[in-house]
Each structure stands twice: as structure tokens, then as C-alpha cells.
Amino acid sequence: SSELTQDPAVSVALGQTVRITCQGDSLRSYYASWYQQKPGQAPVLVIYGKNNRPSGIPDRFSGSSSGNTASLTITGAQAEDEADYYCNSRDSSGNHRVVFGGGTKLTVL
Amino acid sequence: QVQLQESGPGLVKPSGTLSLTCAVSGGSISSSNWWSWVRQPPGKGLEWIGEIYHSGSTNYNPSLKSRVTISVDKSKNQFSLKLSSVTAADTAVYYCARDTYGRVEQWLEYYFDYWGQGTLVTVSS
């Protein structure tokens, strides 16, 4: 399968830890990349590779992977982390297709 | 710091052709990166349209392949999207982005590290 599956919505209490997951066969070959998107804004890369953060991304964001599942963890969620989060990889079946998960809406309570 | 900027008409008539350009600044389009178009219908998720390398090699989303053409103009450091036979379902915010590939041991990395701000294209008569 070339699809990536995410839970549509997740909530977390302010200051607590939340994990957002992404499942797909391509994740057995590719590290997932993760994007944060706030309303009216372009997506922003927050995690790529094994567990890399671009410059400017807080260290409360981390990534991990096991089997066909990738996870984005926010440790000590802040109000400004409320956003949509998308995972992404390439299809590993050789057709060069790029795939996104359906997105997870994170609500910080 | 690489910057990308989309430009083009914000309104296209049904059955017409959507045309957008992405200007790249702060870096060369002839770098070892691919360059992509991604779209997002209102209230929905992200959909990859296709990508191009500076050599002109392209890969397209199979679901759009019959209607999409992506081209590159190295002299202007920009790349372009054409989507033909548009319908209301093609109404979306269109983003251009830079792809980066890598390999770490047996694992592959792939991500979009730079994005344009996006441009809304509405298909309507």
C-alpha cells in the first residue's frame, strides 16, 4: 500500500505529552517527515530523518519509528502547538509517488 | 535562506488550464534537489502533484498525471505547473516546495524543507 494513515484528531492537556502516529508500508523503508500547519499558513517541517529538527523548531518535538509506524511526540505541549500535523514519505513500491497522511488535528486543552 | 514564491491567476474557468510559476531565490534551482507542487483543497489535506529536477526529469501523481505538466526554467531560476481540463475539484491552495532526499544506513529520508506561502486558485465560471 502507498497510503499513510493518521488519526484525524488528538487532544492534549497543556504541558502534557502527546504522540501523533502515522502508519504505512513505505515507513519500513523511509523515515517519515512531519509538518505543522496552522490555519492560513503553509506547512512547516518540524521533524525529518531519524529524529532531526530544522533550525528554530523547539526540542519538545521529537520523532521515532518502529516497523510501519512513525510517531511525532510533543513533550510538554504548548498552546501554540495547536495545529494540523501531517506525515509524509515517498511510496516505496518504486512508482516515485509522494504520499501524505490525512493529517491530525491537535487540540491543546 | 531559500525562498519560494508562487504566482499566477487566482481564478480559472472550468475546462481551462491552471498555470502557476514558482520563483526560487536564495538558492539555485540547479542544486541537487527536486522541486515539487503540492495542493490543498479548502478544509482538506495535502496532495502531492508532481516534481521536477533541473535536468527536466519529472515524476507525477498518477491520479493527476494525464493533466499535469511541470517544467523548469533554469535561466530564471523558476519552475512552473500547468494543470489542464480543470474542474471545481481543482480549487485549492497550491504550494511549491523543495524536496530533499537522503540516506542514513539502510533508511531513506525524504522531506520538503522549504515551502512557498501558497496561492489560492479557484475554478469557477
Task: Summarize the model shown.
Chain A is mainly beta. In chain A, 0% of the residues lie in helices and 45% in strands.
How does this structure look, described?
The complex is a heterodimer of chains A (about 110) and B (about 120). By secondary structure, chain A is mostly beta strands. Chain A has no helices and ten strands. In chain A, strands 2, 4, 5, 8, 9 and 10 form a six-stranded mixed sheet that branches. In chain A, strand 8 and strand 9 form a beta hairpin. The termini of chain A are far apart. Helix content of chain B is about 0%, strand content about 55%. In chain B, strands 2, 4, 5, 6, 9, 10 and 11 form a seven-stranded mixed sheet that branches. In chain B, strands 1-3-8-7 form a four-stranded antiparallel sheet, with no helix packed on it. The relative contact order of chain B is 0.31. Chains A and B meet through strand 8 and strand 9 of A and strand 5, strand 9 and strand 10 of B.
Which features characterize this protein?
heterodimer, A: 109 residues, mainly beta, Immunoglobulin-like, six-stranded mixed sheet, four-stranded antiparallel sheet, 10 strands, globular, B: 125 residues, seven-stranded mixed sheet
SSE blueprint and pairings:
The complex is a heterodimer of chains A (109) and B (125).
Chain A: E1 5-6, E2 9-12, E3 18-23, E4 33-37, E5 44-47, E6 61-66, E7 69-74, E8 83-90, E9 98-100, E10 104-108
Parallel strand pairs in A: 2-10
Antiparallel strand pairs in A: 1-3, 3-7, 4-5, 4-8, 6-7, 8-9, 8-10
Chain B: E1 3-7, E2 11-12, E3 18-25, E4 34-40, E5 47-52, E6 58-60, E7 68-73, E8 78-83, E9 92-104, E10 107-115, E11 119-123
Parallel strand pairs in B: 2-11
Antiparallel strand pairs in B: 1-3, 3-8, 4-5, 4-9, 5-6, 7-8, 9-10, 9-11
